[in-house]
Each structure stands twice: as C-alpha cells, then as structure tokens.
C-alpha cells in the first residue's frame, strides 16, 4: 500500500504544501528525491527546519536518507525533525514507528472560499510598508523573544508572492498582527497573534477580515491557514469565520531527541 488517500486528495494537499513553502520560505532548501529538507539558521520554527516528504511512493533507502538529513540538521545545530503530512504516506510512518520516533504538535490546514466570507463590513486597511515596525509589533503581541527579529526579517524579505503586513494598533500600542500572503487565487494567513492583554475583544477577527478583504480585492478566491490542533481559542475563531479543515500534519523526532 502506498497511500490511504486518493489521488484527488493528495493533489489538493500538494497545492497547499507548495503555497506554504512559497509563503514562508526557509533559508536553505535541499532535495533528496521528493523529500524537501528545509533549514533556517536564523529562526527555530519547525516548519522552517524540517524534512517534508512529498510523495507517498518515495520510500527507497529510508534509513540512508534519514542519515543524510541528520547530518544536515547537525550542521545547523537543529534537531532532526520530520513534518508528516498525507504526502508522507504510511510506509515512512511505519518505519519511524519501528525506530521509536515520537510524534508531536499536530496542526490543521484550513480553508475558506472568499465568496463565502462576510467581508463587506470589514475595515479597509492598507498593509504596513515598514517591515521593521511590523516585526516589532509582531514580536510584542506574540510574546516572542527579540532575538528572533533578524531571522523574522530575513524570512519576510524572502517571501516571493505579495505579502501584506497587517497590524491593528491603539495609539502606539500594537493589539494584533498578521501576515497575509497573496499568491494567485490563494490568500495565506501567517503569524496571526493578538496581545495577551487585548484578547477576546474581536481584534484578531477584525484584522483577519481586513486582510482577507485586501486579498480578495487583489484576486484571491480562497483563504487558508495553519493552526495547532491544541489551540482551542484560535480554532473556535477560525471556524466561526467559516474556515474548514482540509488536512492535518504533525512532527516527528528520533527517540530521545
């Protein structure tokens, strides 16, 4: 058995996976067959530092290829991490199971046809042009360490599709931030965050709707995002906006890593 998913489902997954790679680019990308090895020295995010298998049938010499990937991760000082989507296939998962690899951090990929979104009341908002200002706001509302500033700046600067940097502010205080990447008929939402002291007041919802309105005016027909399965408040928000699950992925690391 190569895959438990029909070809039509895998084609949809491939579309979102490719959009995700374009929208959130790693600093270094290597290919081993159809495994995409993504590494980023300046940012520790798992999606920027992971092996991403893209074909359920590409299962030759798994142990040797894991060894090659491990050496690349060691060179970057990153823990060897596989990102397992429906494109990885059951054979690879069985191999990792047999080697005692752990599974963690399941996430959902969700979509929303923009024709179904209630965007008319959304505030018209122009994205920030000042990347430095946006990054400062993003780090503050997400509670992230300021040491991530150079890495985040590098990632945003490398995004090839049009990226809208959105921040909702009250005076000089940022309340919520997000990045909306307009890529053809897709609008991807990334780094969605609301300041801890300003949550449950609708700021995140309002900013998302403004960003999607911006993207739809530029020709986007569908919004999509990735959210951790354990983030109940975010899932509730996205579902209330009409987002529906497309597929899930999770991460795996060797035993003891």
TrEMBL record:
Listed SUPFAM superfamilies: Acyl-CoA N-acyltransferases (Nat)
Q: Which UniProt keywords apply?
A: Acyltransferase, Transferase
* Domain of life from the UniProt record: Bacteria
- The residue ranges crossing the membrane are none
Q: Name the PROSITE patterns on file.
A: GNAT
Instruction: List the GO molecular function terms.
Output: acyltransferase activity, transferring groups other than amino-acyl groups
Pfam families with a match to the protein in the record: Acetyltransf_1 (PF00583)
Can the keyword Transferase be found in this entry's annotation?
yes
**N-acetyltransferase domain sequence ranges:** 121-257
InterPro entries annotated for this entry?
A: Acyl_CoA_acyltransferase (IPR016181), GNAT_dom (IPR000182), YpeA/RimI_acetyltransf (IPR050680)
Q: Which PANTHER family does its entry note?
A: ACETYLTRANSFERASE, N-ACETYLTRANSFERASE DOMAIN-CONTAINING PROTEIN
* Protein's name according to its UniProt entry: N-acetyltransferase domain-containing protein
Native organism is Mesorhizobium amorphae CCNWGS0123
* Phylogenetic classification of the source organism: Bacteria, Pseudomonadati, Pseudomonadota, Alphaproteobacteria, Hyphomicrobiales
């Amino acid at each position: 058995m190569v895959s438990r998913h029909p070809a039509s489902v895998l084609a949809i997954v491939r579309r979102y996976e490719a959009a995700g790679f374009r929208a959130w680019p790693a600093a270094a990308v290597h290919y081993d067959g159809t495994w995409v090895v993504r590494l980023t020295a300046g940012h520790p995010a798992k999606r920027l530092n992971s092996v991403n298998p893209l074909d359920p049938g590409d299962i030759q010499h798994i142990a040797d290829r894991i060894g090659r990937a491990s050496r690349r991760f060691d060179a970057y000082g990153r823990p060897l991490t596989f990102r397992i989507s429906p494109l990885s296939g059951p054979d690879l998962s069985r191999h990792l199971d047999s080697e005692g690899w752990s599974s963690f951090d399941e996430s959902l990929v969700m979509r929303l046809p923009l024709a179904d979104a209630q965007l008319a009341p959304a505030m018209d908002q122009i994205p920030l042009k000042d990347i430095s200002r946006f990054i400062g706001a993003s780090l503050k509302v997400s509670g992230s360490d300021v040491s991530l500033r150079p890495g985040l700046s590098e990632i945003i600067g490398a995004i090839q599709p049009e990226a809208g940097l959105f921040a909702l502010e009250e005076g000089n205080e940022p309340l919520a931030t997000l990045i909306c990447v307009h890529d053809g008929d897709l609008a991807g939402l990334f780094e969605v965050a609301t300041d801890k002291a300003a949550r449950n007041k609708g700021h995140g919802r309002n900013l998302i709707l403004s960003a999607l309105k911006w993207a739809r005016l530029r020709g986007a027909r569908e919004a999509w995002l990735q959210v951790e399965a354990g983030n109940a408040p975010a899932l509730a928000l996205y579902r209330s906006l009409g987002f529906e699950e497309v597929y899930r992925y999770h991460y795996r690391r060797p035993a003891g890593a």
